[in-house]
Amino acid sequence: MALIVQKYGGTSVANTERIKNVAQRVARFRAQGHQVVVVLSAMSGETNKLIALAKEISASPDPRELDQVCSTGEQVTIGLLSMALKDIGVPAKSYTGGQVKVLTDNTFTKARILSIDEASMRRDLDAGKVVVVAGFQGVDAEGNVTTLGRGGSDTSAVALAAALKADECQIYTDVDGVYTTDPRVVPQAKKLDVITFEEMLEMASLGSKVLQIRSVEFAGKYKVKLRVLSSFEDEGEGTLITVEEDKNMEQPIISGIAFNRDEAKLTLLGVPDKPGIAYHILGAIAADNIDVDMIIQNVGVDGTTDFSFTVNNSDFARAKGILDKVKSELAARAVIGDNSIGKVSIVGVGMRSHPGVASRMFKALADEGINIQMISTSEIKISVVIDEKYLELAVRVLHRTFGLDRAD
Amino acid sequence: MALIVQKYGGTSVANTERIKNVAQRVARFRAQGHQVVVVLSAMSGETNKLIALAKEISASPDPRELDQVCSTGEQVTIGLLSMALKDIGVPAKSYTGGQVKVLTDNTFTKARILSIDEASMRRDLDAGKVVVVAGFQGVDAEGNVTTLGRGGSDTSAVALAAALKADECQIYTDVDGVYTTDPRVVPQAKKLDVITFEEMLEMASLGSKVLQIRSVEFAGKYKVKLRVLSSFEDEGEGTLITVEEDKNMEQPIISGIAFNRDEAKLTLLGVPDKPGIAYHILGAIAADNIDVDMIIQNVGVDGTTDFSFTVNNSDFARAKGILDKVKSELAARAVIGDNSIGKVSIVGVGMRSHPGVASRMFKALADEGINIQMISTSEIKISVVIDEKYLELAVRVLHRTFGLDRAD
Asked: How many CB pairs under 8 A join A and B?
């Protein structure tokens, strides 16, 4: 008997027929003697619908109230799945984030989980019930409803698995595993049987839509065994995300190609080249709770330098507003922004032991006439920012260059 | 400065434009120096949509989970209104039933309010905030979400007004007050400036859709000054619901004509005519939480009698199932059911001092060839059950007969 946390995303609960299918799948696991905790997203499209309502009300909706509104999508699906389970004779009980309770800080719309009270869930599991928890949401110390940000249901699932010391956390989605890249862009993309947390982290943070980045961090940190599976297939082992590299196998140099269209680039030109500048700029950005991704500072010339970074497209306008203020404070020359960029990255633990990967990447892009605007590297990934219109071409070229195309 | 509880129904918050209008109205009251607590229903159609989803999942959805699902409609509107208020510079804070907290028993889908903790609301009001509360919902002692049954938002509003000792509870709806009958059926219907709680209670319980019956009971019990107003008009005093009859005015004999299409009639034929029979039958019905409205037992003949009662249409199938079991237990002859009936009632405190009202009513119906199936009377109302197809005709005839038609 194992304790399994299963998370089903929006497409898996998109309508009542699919919710009944999820109930059947959960019932099968339970019939095998497992204890099951289910974490659900809202029906696909529902959260966007709620945000659209809020935007009709206000150009910048109050964050506390936005969370009050947006958290309802998951509350609907947990109720519906619990009904469906009881309807087929499986005892079940739904919990909102507040009912669990999933305690978070009070950073509305992007809250962080502080602790999870597993007592009531444990009691229900021991009584033979399936526990159905609303993903994406929690409650702060004052009882305000909070949400964890887009894709937060994955994080909820992993956090619950960690709190309950579950044997496995299964993320059911509309794909049957983690691919070398998005098969919609590269039809030759292959499913990976195993990927390391580190690689997955880079893939996720770089825009692979399979798993939310924080959930992978959490899983790595708390050693939660994580598996990505399709909710539309009954067979298949999906992709297991492991802590260890598999020493017995010939490692591919590159495991996958990640890309992201949702970033925007901001540059502050002619900044005085002196200590504390990066902090001055990024401190102001962070103070407004905007996540920064790539950061580039060029070598200074004539006592000034140019400072560039990328943010999520949705934060572009806000970040630009902040930079305009910082510009006067620092007597910088100008602020320029570009939100039609794309980022493409090659990811692989094999990179550590294989020199020359970067130059192979840059040559492949150059051969296609693709200009590189920014470069950023880590131990296991190399990212470049390019004009958005070349993004898909770049992904296909790199997928072929690093031998990832399926051989059929 | 007064403390006013305002309740807005589903049509008043049916879309974001209307929610903004509500925000403007609330802002005007606040600008006059009043403290305002707003109670909201779900957007019109939303609760039905959620119930329809639940019915797709299960023919008889688990009540706890149904409440988990259905309570989300109000959570969306309170968030949206609070955003709208803040957007026009009015500090506001939304509360779900659980956040207030509105403590109820655990009769899911039909919960009763036990107590309301007004401390946080009072703190917010004193800090100058508008408090926006989700109607229709509460939370039981174990933290499960409960709902108060259809129309429960009115009850929430009155209960909050009572708990906060508000100066007035204003129910905003899509009509500008309480009418002598439904103007959609009788165009000559008149708005009443004042109506007594007793009359309103009869009007509401008999199917006038303006106010939910329990809210009127509550208002009467806790002496809450209740006013029904239109949310679509800026002028107008609506209808005030008072404890006292106005002694200075010539009372009309009949204040209004109520009617209800949502009932079904059940009859147990050939029941042994002995003590305890009514309890045996209705006890079984009540045990399943089905509300019974009219009850008729005919005089016994040959040691047996016929026992009839009406229930809400939505409980018809369930009630019939119970009666089928009771039939064998009591060795009764047969169960017959009819869900194409209508009930029409004349209501008026003036009835007390004017004899002959019943016979005028019956004559008016007989003149139109309408057959009366059941009769039930109270001190201030007379109800008859007739074939549903004559319902509107009966309402119009009685409205004219008792001099309620507008003189224009």
From this structure: 112
